[in-house]
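ARCHIVE RECORD
Type: protein–small molecule complex
Small molecule: magnesium ion
Source of inputs: curated submission
Record status: active
Notes field left blank by submitter.
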Amino acid sequence: MSLSAPAAADPFADKKSVLQVDGLVKHFPITQGIVFQRKVGAVKAVDGVSFNLREGETLGIVGESGCGKSTLAKLLMRLEEPDAGSVKFRGEDFLSVKGDELRRLRRKIQIIFQDPYTSLNPRMSVGDIIAEPFKLHPEEKPKQGIRNRVKELLDLVGLNPEHINRYPHQFSGGQRQRIGIARGLALNPDVIICDEPVSALDVSVQAQVMNLLDDLQKQFGLSYIFIAHDLSVVRHISDRVGVMYLGKLAELGTQDEIYNVPAHPYTQALLSAVPLPDPTLRGEREQIVLQGDPPNPANPPSGCRFRTRCWKATEICATEEPELISRGRITQAAACHHAAPNERVAPAHG
Amino acid sequence: GGGDNGGDNGEAAQGVEGGGTVSAYNCEPQFLVPGNSTEVCGSWVLDSLFTGLVQTDLDTNEPMPGVAESWDTEDNQTWTFTLGEDWTFHDGEEITAQTFVDTYNWVIDPDNAQQSANFFDNFVGYQEVVDGDAEEMEGVRAVDDYTLEIELTEPFSPLPDMLTYTAFYPMPSVAYEDIDAFEQAPVGNGRYMMDGEWEHDVQIAVERFDDWAGEDPGLPQRIEWRMYTDIETAYLDVQSGNLDILDSAPPNRRATVESDFGENYADFDTSSFTYMGLPLYQEEFQDVDVRHALSMAIDRQAIIDAIFDGAQTPAANIIPPALSDAGEGNCEYCDYDPEAAAELYEEAGGPTDLTIYFNSGAGHEEWVEAVSNQWQQNLGIENVTFESLDFAQYLALHDEQEITGPYRLGWSLSYPSAQYAMEPIYSTGASSNYADYSNEEFDDLINEANAETDPDTAAEMYTEAEAILLEDMPVIPMWFSNYLVVHSDRVDGDSIFMDQATYTHLEDVVVTEE
Amino acid sequence: MSEMHKAEARTEPIDSQLESSGKAKKKTEEASLLADAWRSLRKNPWFIISAVLLLLFLSMAVFPSLFTNTDPRECLLARSRQDPSAEFWFGTDVQGCDYYSRVIYGARNSIAVGFIVAIGTFIIAVLLGLVAGYFGGWVDAVISRLTDMVFAVPYILGALVLLNALQAFQAQGVREVAFVLIIFMWPTMTRLMRGSVISVVNSDFVMAARALGAGPITIMRRHILPNSLGPVIGYATVFTGIIIGAEATLTFLGVGLQLPAISWGLQLSDARQYLQTSPHLLLFPVIFVGLTVFAFMTMGDAVRDALDPKSKK
Amino acid sequence: MTRYIIRRLLQFIPVIVISTLLVYALVFAMPGDPIRALAGDRPMSDAVRETLREQYNLDDPFFVQYAKYLWGIITAGDFGTTFNGRPVTELITQRLPVTATLALVTFVIQSIMGIIAGILAALYRDRFFDRFVQVATVTMVALPTLVIAFLMQLVFGLNLGLFPIAGINDGLISYILPALAMASVSTGILARLVRSELLDSLSSDYVRTATAKGMKRSRVVTRHGLRNSLIPAVTFIGADLASMMAGSIVVETIFNLPGLGEQVYRSIQGQEGTVVVGIVTLFVIFFVLINLIVDVLYGLLDPRIRYE
Amino acid sequence: MTESQTSTRTAPGTRPGDAPLLEVKDLQVEFRTKAGVAQAINGLNFTLHAGETLAILGESGSGKSVTAQTIMGILDMPPGRIAGGEIRYRGDDLLTMKEEARRELRGGKIAMIFQDALSALNPVMPVGWQIAEMFRIHRGMKRKEARAKAVEMMLRVGIPAAEERAGDFPHQFSGGMRQRIMIAMAIALDPDVLIADEPTTALDVTVQAQVMRLLKDLQTEFNMGLILITHDLGVVADVADKIAVMYSGRVMEAADVYEIYGKPGHPYTRGLLSSIPRIDDEGGRLRAIPGLPPSLTDLPSGCPFNPRCEFATDRCRTERPELRLVAEGHLSACHYAEEVYAGTATTTQRPSPTGTGMIPVSKEAPE
Ligand SMILES: Nc1ncnc2c1ncn2[C@@H]1O[C@H](COP(=O)(O)OP(=O)(O)OP(=O)(O)O)[C@@H](O)[C@H]1O
Ligand SMILES: Nc1ncnc2c1ncn2[C@@H]1O[C@H](COP(=O)(O)OP(=O)(O)OP(=O)(O)O)[C@@H](O)[C@H]1O
Ligand SMILES: [Mg+2]
Ligand SMILES: [Mg+2]
Ligand code: NI
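STRUCTURE (tokenized, with ligand):
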């Protein structure tokens, strides 16, 4: 594989935008005191994120733990109200709709939660949980009957359809995660926001699920926002990848660009740390170890947020916040003053 | 109250030196101003704080001297009272005839809204003052310092009896300055004086007034009335020794009182009269036979036995038997005779549906139910409904004459007089005549008796009047209450005495243990 | 590993596989929380016991004559307050009525009041509590302050006035008394419900439901209700017993059931006076009320257990 | 939260206005003439009656009465008097401490006993103690408070002589029996609430975590399990405290405690609107406060609960 | 500013004659369910030595977490039931041990990182408190001191601004942060045995590397035995010494990490390894093992994997293969282990491929 990014034309360039996100911000207040609380600061969980998701496209989102991915997902679903920014679903302002209209739109956007267990009602059987979307949206009622459809869905995600009457606590972690997936798929939405949908699955089931997602996308032109930590999985499924750091996008480009010519130092560090499923390579890879502690999201460093841990950091990084644009040789957008492809990229497996 | 009763028992037990302290059950008084106190709780306390012109001899229920040494009348209409000369209030203020004039005028002044004001309604000049046409009653005059003259609008022989009542106690001049403050610690002229203020809902304590001018001063050095909200509790407190005297133990306790108290209890007949009134303004009850039948269908003794453990005296009278004026054997229809009752009722065509009225929360449910059961069983009454109402509502119904069936009420004597047992309830248009009874013959007899100067003749006339009532039966006499008094070991049981007006005379109680 | 690359192709249609499993497990087919609950209830001996007891009391309330031939209103003062004997199993009361039949006939009013009030307050409490807890904000403020006011208005006062408005001068029946009790008894339960709603309303699964496009009603009904009902059920079952007592208090205050009505509450409050002399007057109604409360409580427990999929039973 | 609390405190104003108006209206609507009832069945002259009616504004139309009442409060801090002339403020200052003490002692007794019994019942589920609590609760519920109170007087007061039978002369000790009588039913209910909520939370994952951390069973239950199950208990205690203030009529009467409950009852019977309203206002303030505390406690017990 | 890290191949810390740190023998756990008894674990065996890292791989739902819970003694019983077997810690059977003695081991000697970090953390206690509790209860530290230690632990697992955030509650943290708090809690007391149930699923690779390094350090310092339950074969390849592969409640294969990755001796392991998406993979379909795992209430006769196994014969359907030695230090429970090991097994069947990318039938194409 060559180091330079393939200048292939963006295959989604002519597709309509499904989700247009602009300058999304969410700060969580930090309070002190027990009864009479005062606000002493704010966790800047999401701090100005913009991107555009197009029809049939998968946008992978990776980033450091705690950088705001789940919060972003919840904002997109309007499960949290953003402090600023806009979200347009197919050109419609998603943030201002209310009531029935909101519910109608929510049918089109589904989410698979990061935490599989707490997002399942403990007093509903799996059958009821997965059937719920159909009950909420009667117009989507499957032809073959809800129950059969639920069984199909269970089967699709590799769960035993006989377990339809079981309750969430009777399942293993991975099984619970799949219940969430089945629920997210039920309504055939236009966009699915997957927050680490496969993290608890063994690779075989993971493969099944990813194939399923792939098939659905091919068939119905679904769009995904796919949040995950497993970079292989992200690469496998994504068309474009966004790398988040401390509430902001650090880099956004096509899957090839990001994986082959990562331009942001954080992306480079991330890719270098990917463990490979081959014990013989143990210790033989070169890994960029980030120095210093992760910064406090309540009080992020000035200028470039990554600068405190960046080996390329210069003075400008402390004073000027880099914009998310493509610079110089690189084609993808990277929020780094020194954005440049690095020699050290993901090692290939043998 | 007062009298020589306490003296009789003096030698029976060895009292503690100085008299000791006695504590007694009481309920929270409404008022502690003589002219304003109409209920037992307050009057009982006032009874020890004040002495009126006249007192009652507890042995005979006859009037005896109080502040007045003697009195005199020619026509039962104009009365002259000669006052004792060494009476003072607890604060030292001397008592003269003018004291009474001032007090009486103050009491009836509508601005002072004293509830007992209408006890004065047969005083000459009362109405003028009430109407605002006069400042003072003409009928009460201080002839000189120690001679008081009272003129009535019509002859009224029981006046001395009436003057024993709380409403006629004298009040010191401090009272008029700030009646509210006075009420918290009344200054009287009685055997006892306030020790501290009235501790609302907790207690009222009095000390013996050693300068009392009367003949037989109080025995205990100190009396404490403890206010209770529940009699059962007071009963237990006496049992446990926290309280010395409970003068009205719950009737149902009679069954256990012996095991609870051994000898430490006593029974007293009183003038407290319970009756079933009949609304004569309703057609069904205008037939006297119906009333007789209803009366005869009640087995009073059975009810008393079952529900009061035998503690009431079945009434065959209107005048309490405790008064000598009560007639005997006049009540033809007070005996239980179910057959006769049924027959009579049938003939008279008495109502088949009855609504029985009583006030709630005062323990009348059981006996009223028992009465209704007997009426149902004996008279073939099919349907009985009960109306148990809050007292205010209950009275309102009476005032509006909306009662449609037999109703429970009671009467007890503020002063021991046959007149008071009848006139307020049965004479035409009288204030408590809830039955709306009217009988000219009865009215005349009462008036005559009131005018009669010879006590014996008057008594006869009252008895005659009573006989009319028993024949007409505007109310069905039920019983006269019997009070069960229990006491602790600290007091001598023989020294306890309750009068017909249900006041226990604490001043005569001998405390045996400190 | 190339040989495995092919294994993806599918051969059999899914339906056949589904069908075979469907047939095998026909009996476990339809299952919802309620159906499951019912199934496990039927196996719970405590449920059976309480159900039998309740049925017994209910039939006592509806057909008292099945249990006794004696007329409860046939009273002879002469045999007042007799101890239990072969003739009078539960003795006689003050009026000399057969206490056994009085207690049996007392079931109707007491259970009726208990039931109506418990159910009435339960419904009000669940609805208001749900709404207040779920929506919060001014909805909650209005409902909560309303509870404060109802708490504060002494119910005797309310009862006096209300019953009067309900033509109190006619005899006060079960309906009126129940009505008054409901009006004044709902706040406690409502607050309980509101509290437990508040503690589940922030759950992730509620958020998940919202994400699915569920409206407030659906969320309340399907997600919050089943997860917040526990304490209210627990309270409501005991509450039935409390009501039976409260009914007696009302009577005592002159605004409750009126004589000659027969009810356990009346019997209980009458019996107090004869606690030492005729304890049987207290004992028997207490046993009956106690058993009723016990039955309700055990049934409540059983239902709660059954509604909890995690229950260990 | 601070803003929330302030907002809640502001809610006092409409609540008090509405509830006093309501109560005043209710008293006004009561049948019968209070002055008439004051005199009992003895006659009272019309003149006296009229003076009194005028003195207490009883002849005014409802809104005039209410306005005069409010005006008195605003201009002179005058909360009116009883029909026997005692100022309502004095009445309340005398009686409030009694009721407050009673409520407080009851509250302490029932919270401690109820929660401990609930914990034990949950720990020994279906064993003897659990059944005992259940039976005790059933019995307490079945027995009217009247009877319970009386039995306590009889046994602890008279026979054992442990506590005074009645009155408030012995300080805090005098409140123990009445408090026990008041607490009896609630303790049972509380125990049951705690028990079942605790059983719920004991099956949750974080309780398992606590076990896995090597915590003693007792600590697992009290520190990890209990806190999460206290919301219903706290709610109930709050609500019960509220009803205690108003509902202590029976206990205060039997134990001869000069408290507000008994006074309210008497004043209602006597149709003393000003007294009732005065006390009810106090109650309302109290309930709003209690409920505020309960709501704040929710937030402390479960940090996920947020008030804007 | 970069640093390359080289880890040497350290031999597992086994010294012959030493009693193993933890030994699980023939463990059987079942659950009562409405549909019958679910045999979650049936006959599980493995050993863990001090200083060793044992990775447990396996199908989702194969009983890994249940095993962990059973070792910790926190299985919900009922509905769970330990039907047989023993778990020996330094020779003592945990299952028959007194509860008090066992409690002493928990947390201090044997610690566990839970799979589901959000529900495993107490929602109403500040995270700092929850970590500090370990020090307070087991080490008897004072409140302040324990809190300082807790903050230190939070920093060690890479939580930014730990000092300020120690007072926050679990719901205020991200998934990965909660997971790290679980980890901090588990390693707080330097346990002998650490059972890590998917400890890094919510962590990004840099933090994951940091955490794994931390665990490794602890291991070397305290000779800790680590049971690593994970699906991330990359991590396993990086840190494990031994691997046990589980399938429906049993160990199917157990061997040295190099053996497993190089020459898997069980068809299931083979299938697993071939399902891994590669970082250099750009798309296309992933290979999955066809079919569903068996229902635990109704296990197939013979080898539990047989319905999905491409090499299955009639023997596999009737006779249950026991775990046996295929090569030195390499155990496998397959009748044809040798053939699979040597790569010579022949495909016999095409298992019914349900649950593999079936396309939903009810959707109309979007407008
Ligand atoms: N309470 C229960 N009742 C019935 N079955 C249960 C119960 N708990 C767990 N199981 C079953 O036991 C099996 C093993 O579960 P376990 O949680 O150990 O799986 P796991 O290997 O950890 O899977 P994962 O990788 O998905 O977390 C699962 O099939 C699960 O359905
Ligand atoms: N309710 C909340 N209150 C306060 N802070 C919060 C809240 N929810 C999230 N945060 C903070 O916001 C930041 C972003 O959290 P988020 O869950 O979005 O991270 P993430 O990218 O999903 O991380 P991970 O990969 O670990 O799941 C974190 O620092 C978290 O602590
Ligand atoms: Mg997240
Ligand atoms: Mg697991
Ligand atoms: Ni390959």
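CURATOR ANNOTATION: The first helix of chain C runs from residue 14 to 24.
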